[in-house]
Amino acid sequence: MTEQRQDNRPPSPTPPSRRSQRRQTVAELRSQGRAGPGLRDILPGFLGMVLVTAGPVVGLAWLYRAYGVGALLLGAFLLAAATLIGVPWRRAVVRRRGGRYTPAELAVLDDHGLAVAAERILRRDGWHVLPMPDDGRPRLYARDRRDRRLDVSFRPVDGGPGTAEPPGGPATLREPGGPADDRVIRVVISMGAYSPAEIEWASRPGGDHLVDGRQLQQWASGTSLDALGLLN
User: Fold this and answer.
1) CA distance 63 to 69
2) What angle do CA 108, 112, 115 make, to 5 degrees?
3) pLDDT of residue 37
4) Which one has a higher pLDDT value, 12 or 61?
5) Between 171 and 192, where is the model more confident?
């Protein structure tokens, strides 16, 4: 009777294999955003690295077999020259995309280029930026994690007093579909210097925060607007 009861017991569940446990762990980590990249994520970059590394070697070997030592030396010289030019250029592109500009790079920017640079610099400092052109003139709207809001406009270098904005009370920026917000901090950026009249106009209560060429260079080199004392 006892043996019959034991035989009627339901079978114990089979413990999951190590492979299934590992899959479950990886799935949980990926859902939490904590898992590292998978094979599909790193394979394109790995293949690109292989092509970049092996491609020149294969090309030089083909030149040597087809045309001899002279072609090999010429190819090696051209490859070295391309490397010397391409690597610094690539680094400069990556640096600018990361929101860091040299004074020489700022000096050659037009109004659109300056707006792009300011957008990248703001993103570098943790601002969420939304381009909002105003009658064809570049303008940016930005917000940070502290819910501070910026209305960024630009004054041409050859402009006179009040070129960036007409005189009068500080204008507020309307969000898409939303009302005007008096908490918006208005910032005017110029690659030149401001006149005494502009500085006096901006120093009134509720006035604009002016960024001149010298402060712009400091900002573009890595200093934040807070460190420059412009948002205090």
Assistant:
1) 8
2) 95
3) 58
4) 61
5) 192
For helices 69-97 and 111-124, the axis angle rounded to 10 degrees is 80
CA distance linking residue 202 with residue 162, whole number of Å? 10
Q: Is 99 left (phi over 0), alpha (psi -120 to 50) or beta?
A: left
pLDDT tens-digit map of 195-225: 888 888 888 877 788 999 999 999 999 998 8
Task: Note whether 199 and 164 are within 8 A (CB).
Answer: no
Angle of CA points 47, 53, 55, to nearest 5°: 90
Tokens 């680094």 sit at which residue?
91
Question: Model pTM greater than 0.85?
Answer: no
Q: What is the pLDDT of residue 113?
A: 92
Contacts of 118 (CB under 8 A, 6+ apart): 140, 152, 154, 189
User: What is residue 163's predicted lDDT score, i.e. its pLDDT?
Assistant: 41
The single-letter code of the amino acid at 5 is R
